[in-house]
Amino acid sequence: MPVIRVKDLSKEYLVADKQPGLIGTFRHFFSREYTSIKAVESIGFNIDRGEIVGFIGPNGAGKTTTLKMLCGLIHPTSGVVNVSGNIPSLRKYKFLKDITLVMGQKQQLIWDLPPIDSLKVNAAVYGIPDKEASYRIQELALMLDLKEELNRPVRKLSLGQRMKAELLASLLHRPSILFLDEPTLGLDVNSQLRVRDFLYNYNQKYQATIILTSHYMADITSLCKRILVIDKGQLFYDGPLAKLTQQFSPSRLVRLEFNEQINFSLLKHYGKIIKQDNYSVKLLINRNDLPQKINNLLNNFSIRDLEIADPPIEEIISKIYSNKIE
Amino acid sequence: MLRINIILKYLRILFQFWSTSLSIELEYKLNLFVEILSTIGNLAGSLFVLSMFYTADNTLGGWPWHSSLIILGFYTLIESFTISFLQPNLSRIVKQVQNGTLDFVLLKPVNSQLWLSFRTFSPYGLPSLIVGIILIYIGLVKGNYYVNELSLIISFVMFICGLIILYSLWFLIASTSIWFVKIWNANEVLRSVLISGRYPISAYPLALRPILTFLLPVAFLTTVPAQALLGIAPFSLMMVGVTIAIVFFVFSINFWKYALKFYTSASS
Ligand SMILES: Nc1ncnc2c1ncn2[C@@H]1O[C@H](COP(=O)(O)OP(=O)(O)OP(=O)(O)O)[C@@H](O)[C@H]1O
Ligand SMILES: [Mg+2]
After folding, report:
1. How many angstroms separate the CA atoms of B226 and B53, rounded?
2. Per-residue pLDDT tens for B149-187?
């Protein structure tokens, strides 16, 4: 039984056309003309309890819009959304207590006060008794590696510390469904790693369902077995991450190291040269001819080391984003 | 039982809301200092006006000076409510729509209208609260008015109705920011309307009175509670006041629900 069910979901935004300047504003006030933007177009998917799903796509693809419909912030133009048996846009308290939305660009913590004050507000809002709340705060703080930061004004925290405190505030009520919109935005590599580890642990501990958007592929590859790719409002791919590579990249990446300096032009008809150095080269070789080409290479060159891998996911994604899929 | 639980829950929430907003004030000590200075300044101004009232021996729109003091007192009480709640909270709605942090409010299992209306409490309304009560008291004593418990209660009810009317109007205008982000400055509009409540309605030209009573129900904010206190409020007018309060309040609730259907949440 899937915990999230989405069918034919669409969202159109009406945006007022407004000419620049004062006269434009004036005219606009009397005759409003609208253009509609199709942000999401009849997408559908099911997600099971406990899954961590990566939701990726280029800027403006409709990821945030979809997440906002899933958590009930905005009403769909058409289609069906069901999250753990609820219609999100009704925003029933029972539903709201079961979900959370974390946005990398927006924060709920009170800027001038230490996070602990915001946490107390949230405890009251979710009706968590004081004792239970302080127990949960301790537990989550430990998982997030937060200590005295909780007692320092938010405005004096670093971006990473703030994001971790945001996560704590968003998870105090132990939601079982997490919508995370770029939770690692702007974080350095170490902080990203921390947040990722934390999300993984939270998922394991509470069997939480997580939908995650991120423009850092490392977030996706390390957390998500399954990904949804959306482009121009349409669902483009839904399946295992590994399969995306096979499906959209017909080649594999071969790295060769030679014992001697070689003439790189000789390598041209083996595959596409990505990068070349004095003694090493990276080649993209079609999967179908791979064994034979490798064989030939080994026969014709004096090779010290050889490595075969999938091309980096970023390349595949960027290919998908720029619509260069053959 | 269930009701009591809900009330307790909301009391706890309000306690957290207001203690955090007081802590924020304390974070900025200079600001606190300036605000206290300006409150003292305001107070001095009111007292000056007051002393002028005492030297004059006249009536205003048929109200003797000491009874118009009572009106001024109610006006000051309204102002206290405005400074403590309406202004800090409702002007924030526009900002929250603009920067999209309204999202967090809407995703909490609490009534969003209650949250938005009572999230912060500004202590700077408290002096006006005290001054207002003192003004009403002086007016009653100087005018040799006898007030029985019943008229006290009725006056209180009418005053609450006035607050509800003002609140609902203010909240209504603030809700339109869902569509017209930025266009309104509800504060300025309403403050200037409000000032007209300083004087008895009958002090205004005949043509303005219906407007101030029914279109912008200023009369119900100050004049009617004062009349009720003195036992001279027409019963029908009080009924109209109660009705307007209920209608406005219910309308504000439904209008907010309706507005939220159009909320698109600032893009991020
Ligand atoms: N509140 C809004 N009003 C009008 N149009 C909007 C609004 N929010 C988003 N859009 C438009 O809808 C489309 C999808 O936006 P959305 O924010 O969902 O993209 P996204 O996939 O989250 O992109 P990003 O990776 O940049 O965050 C965009 O064309 C955007 O301009
Ligand atoms: Mg987005």
Report:
1. 18
2. 999 999 999 999 999 999 998 899 889 888 876 655 666
pLDDT in tens, A184-235: 998 999 999 999 999 999 999 999 999 999 999 899 999 999 999 999 999 9
Per the domain annotation, does B74 fall within a domain?
yes
Q: Give A18-82 as a DSSP string.
A: --SHHHHHHHHHHS-EEEEEEEEEEEEEEE-TT-EEEEE-STTSSHHHHHHHHTTSS--SEEEEE
State in Å: Cα A64 to ligand 1 middle: 7
Cα separation, B219 vs A180, in Å, equals: 51
Closest listed residue to residue A40, CA positions, set A214, A180, A234: A234
A213 touches B at CB < 8 Å: no
- Confirm whether B265 is domain-assigned: no
Q: Which ligand minimizes its atom distance to the CA of B265?
A: 1
Report the side by side order of strands in the sheet with A78-83: A33-47, A4-17, A78-83
- Number of compact structural domains in chain B: 1
Which among A186, A111, A1, A163 has a CA at the least distance from the CA of B101? A111
Tell me the shortest Cα–Cα distance from A225 to chain B, in angstroms. Answer: 26
Burial, B255: exposed, middle or buried (Cβ in 10 Å; 0-12, 13-18, 19+)?
middle
| pTM of the predicted model as reported, rounded to 2 decimal places | 0.86
The DSSP result for A243-260, as a single string, is HHHHHH--EEEEEEEESS
Residue B160 included in any domain = yes
Instruction: Evaluate whether residue B267 is within a structural domain.
Output: no
Partners of B106 on chain A (C-beta within 8 Å) are 72-73, 91
